[in-house]
Amino acid sequence: MKILLTNDxxxxxxxxxxxxxxxxxxxEVVVVAPATEQSAAAHSVTLLNPLIIQEVLDEHKRFxxxxxxxxxxxxxxxxxxxxxxxPPDLIVSGLNxxxxxxxxxxxxxxxxxxxxxxxxxxxxxxxxxxxxxxxPIDFQAAAxxxxxxxxxxxxxxxxSGSLFNVNLPKQELGTxxxxxxxxxxxxxxxxxxxxxxDPRGRTYYWLGNDYCCPAPHPHSDEDALAEGFVTLTxxxxxxxxxxxxxxxxxxxxxx
Length: 255
Fold this sequence. Notes:
The chain is of the alpha/beta class. Helix content is 25%, strand content 25%. The strands form two sheets. A nine-stranded mixed sheet has the order 3-4-2-1-5-6-7-11-8, with helices on both faces. A two-stranded antiparallel sheet has the order 9-10. Helix 2 runs parallel beside helix 3 (109-119). It is globular and about 60 Å long.
């Protein structure tokens, strides 16, 4: 099996390195990932600047892949169109530091990279580890769980272009209670900005770190994640509201 591994935390992120070690037992792994952290880059792509790339070696001085001066979606697009001699069988994005459940899928560079892979009709999986500050994440332990989830997904024989979002619960909750296949939570999140003044007297706002979902919908990914379950959500990138579309087509629209 040929696997393309990417992320939004950067090619040197410990989560990516830990997941790569686990994926090597599945087959050949090539990394194409951002040279620097691109968290919350969503599905942005680079248009006005060149995508500078550099080959990267692993700890054994063997070829690991390419670092790209660009966004996560850039990395997958460039890998599939230019860099890889043979198309991958699987695209994995992660292992992200912090969950990407609920509406965070709209902001996440990790999920966006997986979506880009699904555009190309490849099975794509985004994987994130929920974290509780300030305790550091045990990425190696998380990667072992992530690998088991990937195994279960592959055993289901997903069709070409299938897209999955996986989130692992906070490690301080203990061993995950199990795996639940659930829809994406769409409840509103709590967020705030810290107001301050810079050294030149200008007012600025900085998004606070209390961004959370205080009242998740029951039987959703955020709900189960808080209870200590690994969550698995199939996604799609067709944003058309087909119910509303059918309703609107019941009347005649004219200019």
